[in-house]
Specification:
The protein is of the alpha+beta class. It has one domain (2-112, 147-242): Cyclic Phosphodiesterase, Chain: A. Helices cover 39% and strands 16% of the residues. It is built from 7 helices and 8 strands, in the order ααββαββαααβαβββ. The protein has helices at 2-5, 32-52, 84-111, 131-134, 138-143, 152-168, 186-200, and strands at residues 61-67, 76-80, 116-118, 124-126, 173-177, 216-217, 220-226, 235-242. The strands form 3 sheets. A 4-stranded antiparallel beta sheet has the order 5-2-1-6, with no helix packed on it. Strands 3-4 form a two-stranded antiparallel sheet. It has a two-stranded antiparallel ribbon with strand order 7-8.
Length: 243
């Protein structure tokens, strides 16, 4: 990755090699204690979910051919084979930590509008409890009691949505370079492929499946990363070894 970065103009950002499993994970970032609690819960549950999947493969991750898109974050990358366990893992995390929390929150807004307000940007946000509110009389407290509702149907729909996402949207890949350059001209492509093939000692990085070259792995480290602002400013909120 360091060698390939030098081929692109504008000093592309450096980042850890990784495969994104899912984005938009639901984490409370307003309260440090709650953030830590959410991160620990998500990582622990994720490790359990991965370990519960059948060990019917040699590698969870198998690299495929080199590819490029117009998108900044998919400028140059290895495609990753759609291993059934990898797809199942992504589907579980998407359902539990992205879709389900969002859909339950949307239903809560409908059922308990009094618990929400609008922020300065017009977004619906949960009202924060103040000391003044906590000291009000019991009659006043009853006015802000949350109405409970059945989440069975929401959970069923979340399972369906996650399955659809894992089939039609999840695109596992290992990014090598982030860049705005587009398209990559033929001369640069030849240089890129030569460097990859020489570095990895393979004959063809255009092959759809590089399994025979041993390019893959099982397990690793699962990280929850706050991807806000410049790549250099991304923050790792927590990590767990998965094997």
């Amino acid at each position: 990755m360091g060698s390939l970065n030098t081929l692109f103009p504008g000093q592309p950002p450096r980042f850890e090699p990784h495969i994104t499993i899912t984005t938009n994970v639901d984490v409370d970032l307003d309260d440090p204690d709650k953030t830590r609690e959410d991160v620990d819960k998500i990582l622990s549950a994720s490790a359990v979910a991965l370990n519960s999947l059948p060990k019917n493969h040699s590698n969870l991750v198998t690299l495929g051919k080199i590819n490029s898109q117009r998108k900044f974050f998919k400028k140059l990358y290895f495609q990753v084979a759609r291993d059934p366990n990898l797809i199942s893992f992504a589907r579980i995390l998407r359902e539990l930590f992205v879709i389900l929390p969002k859909d339950i929150e949307q239903e809560n807004i409908k059922q308990n509008p009094h618990l929400y307000t609008k922020d300065g940007h017009g977004n619906t946000v949960k009202r924060k409890k103040s000391k003044r509110n906590r000291s009000k009389s019991s009659a006043s407290e009853n006015e802000t009691t949350a109405k409970e509702f059945d989440t069975t149907l929401i959970q069923q729909e979340a399972t369906w949505k996650a399955a659809d996402w894992s089939t039609n949207e999840f695109d596992p890949h290992l990014s090598l370079v982030y860049s705005d350059i587009y398209p990559i001209d033929k001369a640069l492509w030849r240089t890129i492929k030569t460097r990859i093939q020489d570095y990895l000692n393979i004959e063809n990085c255009d092959a759809d499946d590089l399994t025979d070259n041993g390019l893959g792995w099982d397990g690793g480290v699962l990280k929850l990363v706050l991807c806000e602002g410049d790549v250099a400013n991304w923050i790792t909120l927590g990590s767990v070894d998965v094997h």
